[in-house]
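Quick illustration for those who missed Monday's session on complexes.
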Amino acid sequence: MSNKKTFTLTDNASGESWELPVMHGSLGPDVIDVRKLYAQTGCFTYDPGFTSTGSCESKITYIDGDKGVLLYRGYPIEQLAANSDFMETCYLLLYGELPSAKEKTGFEHDITYHTMIHEQMQTFLRGFRRDAHPMAVMCGMVGALAAFYHDSTDISDPKHRMVSSYRMIAKMPTIAALAYKYNLGQPYVYPKNTHGYAENFLHMLFSNPCEEYVIDPVLAKAMDVILILHADHEQNASTSTVRLAGSSGANPFACISAGIASLWGPAHGGANEAVLEMLEEIGSAKNIPKFIEKAKDKDDPFRLMGFGHRVYKNFDPRARVMREQCHNVLDALGVHDEPLLEIALELEKIALEDPYFIEKKLYPNVDFYSGIIFKAMGIPTTMFTALFAVARTVGWIAQWNEMIEDPSQKIGRPRQLFTGAEQRDYADLSKR
Ligand code: SDX
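Prediction with s-citryldethia Coenzyme A bound:
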């Protein structure tokens, strides 16, 4: 944090200058307040991709990309992954403080008793082709929730917002598992109130009527840690989508559906699916140099999936924890020769020693190892981003609530640099 008070902007042609206030946060870069810039100068700022733009004030998640630091409400992600659980992390993200034992029990109870979805949602589901991508199903099903819960869509009422928030967090695993079972042609598995959140998710994914599914505690713990790692991440593309949709007053289910759509992209949450496909395409460690060269070739659109990040210019701290979970899961499953893990470890080693990746500060991100864990757990590649969406729902919801409670909040409406045709008169067809 600096002691700067203002920046002076000068028009060198006219000599006119303007003082732009500097705002200071508790951590991270200061911001130049440009809210009055257009009124004062007649100019917009220009920042496609928002590489230098702060869209809001937030107290939820802080990232230091240079140091590889990720804090949820001030707590380092490594400490939460090692000592907390996903339900407690959800409470922390929503309310800003770690819960007391009583608060935690009450929160877990409330979430548990919202995990079922309206039975009529099954009718909606049956409209999809069996081979529909789970993310397409989740977009549709989550958006459809707005048609079932008219009792909690008054976003100006904090009670309505909290009921919708709990419903979203509770029902996402049920909807994701429903999409998976529908894909398989297996019967839908109802949630069990005796299970914890991660256990229930595994139960709904892998149980079937023909045999009791025994939950492996190592897999349940790994799933819980993976949910923590993916829970929130500042103003990423899907969170910004949820905030922008919510800024118009849209109902929370529609906003989360928009977030799911944005997360689906391979440059964002869809990267975990793309990493597995990439590792399978590489096929063997001996082919890695060829793919590294493709990733470095400006004329080749191929990128090393699971590498690079808009903010992290150091190791993504989540990737380190994910790599550790990878080894735990493979050991628990007795998988000792996972070729994809061998390729991933060798790819990571070679890339981190390559001048191109060093110069561009490209490190493995959260998506690099998650797919290997999911595959080892028997989860199909098409479900990887759906799992990411389950975890990220609490982050989207916490950011959505913060946006609505922000007194300075208004509908998001960016402007542009227009380079199209100037005004001209209509030409009759006979004259074209
Ligand atoms: C997530 O924002 C978040 O917080 C997202 C996320 C979250 O939790 O919400 O962390 C989750 O989305 C993680 C990122 C998952 N995506 C991938 O793994 C896809 C592969 N990575 C890239 O496509 C890319 O790195 C991005 C999209 C993640 C970041 O892109 P930026 O910030 O727009 O950076 P850039 O495209 O401008 O790249 C900078 C340079 C470019 O070279 P030059 O034009 O400067 O010569 O680095 C190169 C890029 O070509 N580069 C890569 C590369 N990523 C960037 N080159 C090869 N392989 C890559 N993966």
